[in-house]
Structures are given as C-alpha cells and as structure tokens.
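Lab meeting notes turned into a lecture example. A postdoc, R.K., suggested we walk through two folding results consecutively so the class can see how the record format repeats. The first protein's sequence and structure tokens come next.
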Amino acid sequence: MFPPGTPAADALREIINAPYDPAGTALRSLQQLLIAESVFTTLGYDDGAPRLIVVRTDFTIWTDPGEQMFFWKAGGERASHVPVSEAGDAARRIAERLTESSTGSGTEVARPVV
C-alpha cells in the first residue's frame, strides 16, 4: 500500500470510498470490449449520467436509469439498444455501425495514432 497522507494514498482512499456506480461500471466494461473492436471512446457525463463518446464523432453510448440496456446513436438518428448482459454483442454492433458510417456518410471512426 501507499504511505498514509501521501497524494497516492488519498487518491486510492477516494476511489475505495466512492459510491458504487453501476452505470459507469457497465460502460467501462463496454469500453474495454470496444477497444478490442478498435473503437476508442472517452467517458463523459451529461447531467450527472455517464456516457461513452466515440472519439472524433458525435456518436454517444449510454445506459437506461436501471442499467439494464445499452443505447447508442449519432446525431439526430434513432437510438439502437441491446441488454447490458449482451455487452459483447453491443460492442460488435457498435463497431459495425461505425464502420458503415465511416464508409457511407463520412463519419470518421477513431483509430489509434501510431
């Protein structure tokens, strides 16, 4: 562990004592699956609710208030959804949707900088 009173120890204590955030946890799990699909996101908050935002796009991913479903959409289109229990399927469908967008409408899918 870190020596008490150090910045690292204080930061760790804040993480350990933070309230459980099921929506944030579900989104971070999905975020890891999206990385495997070469889709890169950042975690943001909209009125206190966590959201994943695909880098360099207007594509957003979120959960319902009960953390039962993942939803995603770009701009003004209708949102698609999948149960949180099917996160792997959600990651695949999101990656496919972004690939379609990048080849059809000019929306750029973020790729790592090498």
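The second example is placed directly after the first for contrast:
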Amino acid sequence: MLKHPLDNDFEQLSTFEQKIIMAVAAKVSVDDANTKVYTLYIKDLNLDKLVPSDITQSLKALQQKNIAVEREGQLIQVPWLTQVSYDDLSKSYAIIFNSMLKTSYVDLFLKYHGERQ
C-alpha cells in the first residue's frame, strides 16, 4: 500500500524537525487567516538543552525542505516554512508558512496526536 505523500515528506525530516513541525501544527487551525504569524516559544519544544541558534538553524533548514501538496489535481512542492524570525526578549520565533499547508499541518497533528483539546 502506498503512503500518502504527506507521510513520506514528514518521515524524511529529522526527529528534531518533526518535533518543530508538530509544535507549529498544534497551533494551526484550518480557519486561521491566510497571513497568520504563528508564535513558537522555545519552551513549546521542550528542549531546554538547545540554544536558540541551533533551533534557528533547523527552522531555516525547514525553509529549504518541501512538502507535496495537491492543488487542482496536481502535486506541487511547497516549503514547510516560508519565514522565520527570532525574538530574544520573549525567547520565541515568529513563523509563517504557505496557507496551502494549513490542512496538511492539521492532518499531521490529528494523525499523530488525535483530537485537539
């Protein structure tokens, strides 16, 4: 049985990158505005041992990695993240991704974590 392209793309990420995507996915709703900026706090990752520059490096790597999304019957490649910036004061990242991925993020979260709380 063939896997869904979303599963293949997600499984090709490192464990740390998967953790980042899941932390973002936990904040996404399909009803969110198309231009929403998601805030991801370092504490959301449960990774006290990593320094912000290590996290930033992984987030920027996710800007270079793509996910396959079906659009009008065709699979197109879209970056997991499109913009990332770090705020040292709040120890948080502002993250933006293509609005076509909202459903994919929600589907991933539900697949691995079940219902939202």
